[in-house]
Amino acid sequence: MIAPKYAEVIVEVKSASVDRPFHYEVPALLADRVHVGTRVLVPFGPRRVEGYIVGFSETTDAPDKTKPLAEVLDDEPPLTPDLVKLAGWLSERYLCTKAAAVQALLPSGMRAKATTFLRIKTDPPDVYLPGSWESELLQELYQSPNKTKEQLVSEHTEWRPLIRAWVEKGFLEELHGVKHGIQAKTMAFLFTPLTSADLQTALDELSNRAKKQKELLSYLFDAGEALMMKDVFAVTGASSATLKPLLDKGYVVKEEREVNRDPYGIQHAEKSQPLPLTPTQENAYQTIKTAVDSGAPQTILLQGVTGSGKTEVYLQAIASCVEQDRQAIMLVPEIALTPQMVEQFKKRFGDEVAVLHSRLSTGEKYDEWRRIRHGEVNIVVGARSAIFAPFDSLGLMIIDEEHETSYKQDDHPKYLAREVAMYRARQHRATVVLGSATPALETRWWAHQGIVQRIEMPERVRGQKLPKVRVIDMRDELQSGNRSMFANALKQGIEERLERGEQVILFLNRRGFATFVLCRSCGYVARCRDCEIPLTYHKARGLESLRCHYCGFAERLPETCPDCKGDHVRHFGTGTQRVEEELGKVFPEAKVIRMDVDTTSGKDAHATLLSRFRKGEAQILLGTQMIAKGLDFPKVTLVGVISAETSLYLPDFRAAERTFQLLTQVAGRAGRHELPGEVIVQTYNPQHYAIQFAKHQEYEKFFDHEVRHRYTLNNPPFFELTAFTSVNEDEMKALHIARTLEDRLRRSLDGRDDVIILGTSPAPLARLQGKYRFNVVLKYKKFKGVSAPIREAYQSLQGEAQKLGGYLTIDVNAQMIL
Ligand SMILES: Nc1ncnc2c1ncn2[C@@H]1O[C@H](COP(=O)(O)OP(=O)(O)OP(=O)(O)O)[C@@H](O)[C@H]1O
Ligand SMILES: [Zn+2]
Ligand SMILES: [Zn+2]
């Protein structure tokens, strides 16, 4: 092969102005180590920075200015050629820099840092007084040659001028290098190189008192392979003191070897066997298998009610895919919340599965990632970013609970996992399965249009009925004199379960930030007079006010209800803690496990709390949406929803959809096994269609109704939304950038009937961390038709926003506008 002359490198510099590949000469020495996807170190201005090779060429624009690559950082390129392409697509679709796109594909521990080392070139001539900066610096340089200049200067800021002077005088030399973010973890291993004849001699030679040493040596010999030192010590009771003489004599060899950090510990407990499928499951399984085997990219919506046994279909479809030597990715909304899913995968596939999620340490993530890259596993279970798993022959990607908001990344690049999956499916001729009891409206619409194939699983596995849902009108409760947060029916329901030794899940619907104001007598909700958006409750310096997050309108909290003149106006946003207190008063004998952000901050907190509940250590599980999904507890026969509407009054066009999904999912936690389930939903809006359809768990009817709404309002799936947010500490500057952006968009897009520009307005989160935020929202039918003007306007104003001390962000295909 003729070595390519120039490498095209994406450099890790966060600036839109350098968002293109740069040419670097490939030195002959490095020629056979560079590939598309190789990570390199390159000179960039006065610095050295990390970069990725995305291509090669024989020519360059400025041959005399082109510098050579400095270093190749890994023997195996971290990115495969199709991941390099994927990065290119990400930056096109979500308008992020190419460097940011590459970073999104790699585990955070991957990033090496360019740094400077100091070497003594010639000894400084003078002899310095002990204790002087000069003598200390010299001493440090001799003692710790591997310390970087950055480390030295941060530990001893006072040395900075001295170092500079010595470098200038030529006493010190600056060497550029890299410090790796994370190292592969190594552990000490022991083995014996002795043959059996040698062993006998060795044992004879050891003194009779050295019983421990003899035992250790024999143990290692019998093992016949290298064993981890800590395990050997644990089994034989030997210690370093026992080992030392054996090492000295050469009877035993100690070696550091790379090991993988296993985040779940090694639990090769009983392996689970595939269950015989029900006819419905069989049909779903066969459809998916046929799609995977066909080798044509496809997307399938698996619409199965809660408890219909989707997981078993996933497991068997993945097993079949892996048998064909293709790999599979299983995405779950937030892995810490779905320990049961991970457990099932570990049990079915053992070591064949890698687990990727946000709560792993950087090192653990890196190890799991390496196992995937090296082809040691064929299956990955993980949250959103696992969709980037570096497999080279993908067959199947499954997104469970595909409607969940967590599949949209909230940082650049703001990708939607579903779209990434569909892109990778085209690259690999693979199948995407979107599973849900309550699909995203868009997904269900595509199925309606025939773009996505739809499989239904309308019944629960053992034919159990879906739980009966009772909707309780809390206005009536108040009228009949019940002022507590539990309706009488719910109180009674809990009591019965406690008596029968069954379990209860209480769900507090609290999504996002908003706290709205409602009259408990008549259901009146305070809304902005201009925008119709529910007002948000604010309390500052004892003053209670109501604000509109769209237009900024504000008023005092009314003392009496404007509608019924009653004095039961309250702000809503009851915390789990208050519910817990109340439970303690009403049911002093019941044990309650509370799950919310406060009680689940530890690494395994979720899993621990859930397993305690499973074991029956508590009768009531109380939590926020983190308990809404995926849980499967046989003894739960009652699910109570404290207030259904919290999510209904978010300033978000998806509010009804979210409420419907949430209620249906929570209801699905009840009565999944032998015992029949009941659900009690408390609300001040029993007539709202989202609540009514959820009551009967009628997704299809909800879809029909909601899709019409969306059509009239030009919302997704009929239009896609892209939101720009201009942020600045100075309100006028933030506004100025947003207005200018709006102008530019109007100039290039006005007059088109497939585009709607919603003018500049304060963001629903109008002020965040002391910064003002303004939104410009663009609606369009096809991204292709608007991507060029969007890119142009965005990129030109991004720089201007920065000059004004703020920034401009873009969210393509925004799922929620905040
Ligand atoms: N073929 C089968 N035979 C017997 N039991 C099964 C079978 N398939 C699934 N199950 C059991 O049925 C229960 C419900 O299955 P699963 O949790 O997969 O439902 P799901 O469709 O994922 O529901 P959800 O959307 O609520 O998470 C589980 O306890 C599972 O072990
Ligand atoms: Zn308003
Ligand atoms: Zn009222």
In short:
By secondary structure, the protein is of the alpha/beta class. 34% of the residues lie in helices and 23% in strands. It is globular, with a radius of gyration of 31 Å.
Spatial strand order of the main sheet: 13-14-12-15-16-11-17
What does the overall shape look like? globular
Structurally, how many domains make up the residues?
6
Helix percent band: 25-40%
Overall pLDDT metric? 85
Helices and strands, with pairings:
Elements (H helix, E strand, L loop, with lengths): L5 E6 L10 E4 L13 E6 L2 E11 L13 E2 L8 H14 L3 H8 L7 E8 L12 H11 L5 H7 L4 H10 L2 E8 L5 E7 L4 H10 L5 H13 L3 E2 H8 L3 H10 L3 E7 L19 H16 L3 E7 L5 H14 L3 E5 L7 H11 L3 E4 L5 H12 L5 E4 L11 E7 L16 H12 L2 E6 L4 H9 L3 E5 L10 E6 H6 L8 H13 L2 E5 L9 E3 L16 E5 L2 E5 L6 E3 L12 E3 L4 H11 L5 E4 L9 H10 L5 E4 L12 E6 L13 H13 L10 E6 L5 H7 L3 H14 L7 E9 L2 H19 L5 E14 L2 E10 L2 H21 L3 E6 L6
Parallel strand pairs: 11-16, 11-17, 12-14, 12-15, 13-14, 15-16, 18-28, 19-26, 19-27, 25-26, 27-28
Antiparallel strand pairs: 1-2, 1-4, 3-4, 3-5, 6-7, 8-9, 8-10, 20-24, 21-22, 22-23, 29-31, 29-32, 30-31
Helix pairs in contact: 1-2, 7-9, 10-11, 20-21, 21-22, 23-24
